[in-house]
Amino acid sequence: MYVLYTAEPALVVDRQGLSLHQYADDTQVYISTLADDAEAAVQRLSAYLVDIKAWLKARQFRLNPTKTQVMWLGSPQQLAKVNVSEVPVASGRINVSETERNLSIIIDSQLTLSAQVSAVCRSGYYQLRQLRPLVRSMSSDAIKTLVQAFISCHFSTASPTV
């Protein structure tokens, strides 16, 4: 059944000239365009959303606009040329975001990963502060082992605890 419900939306994506990436129950639709053609890209994306909403409705599903995100990716110079700040979806609008979480990684519009680094550091400092009461009664070697274990464990996982 999963294949039946994931194969057909790919055809809808193809009809609109968009690209698709799917992972488990997450679908990402994207388009590569020049900054000057942003309006046309938004129109194609909006047409896709109308088509997919009709497809979902025919199967008694619904599009969840609160889980639908839009982001422009590019250099600061290219992003400055794009003056589209929202995309029409069904009966509402979606604001364009500067950052989004994708598979537990925070991606920003310039692909600098600065938001991801900040989140990991913030989480690390929080976790280290939680250890403070414990370390007062520990030896120096035990503290070093604890911190090394924490750092190894924390940075070996892809998803930060925020």
Structure description:
- The protein has 162 residues and is of the alpha+beta class.
- Helix 1 (2-15) runs antiparallel to helix 2 (38-58) and helix 4 (114-135) packs antiparallel against helix 5.
- The protein has five helices and seven strands, in the order H-E-E-H-E-H-E-E-E-E-H-H.
- A three-stranded mixed sheet has the order 3-5-4, covered by helices on one side. A two-stranded antiparallel ribbon has the order 1-2.
- The chain is elongated, with a radius of gyration of 21 Å.
- The protein has helices spanning 2-15, 38-58, 76-81, 114-135, 140-156; strands at 19-23, 26-30, 70-71, 86-89, 92-97, 99-102, 105-108.
- The chain has two domains: 2-98; 114-156, no CATH class.
- What is the number of beta strands? 7
Number of domains: 2
The Cα radius of gyration reads: 21 Å
Query: How far apart are the first and last residues' alpha carbons, in Å?
Result: 35 Å
User: DSSP helix count?
Assistant: 5
Structural class: alpha+beta
Strand content: 15-25%
- Note poorly predicted spans: 158-162
Strands in their spatial order, largest beta sheet: 3-5-4
Sketch the topology as an H/E string, one letter per element. Answer: HEEHEHEEEEHH
**Helix share of residues?**
40-55%
Main beta-sheet strand count, sense and barrel state: 3 strands, mixed
Average pLDDT figure: 83
Shape: elongated
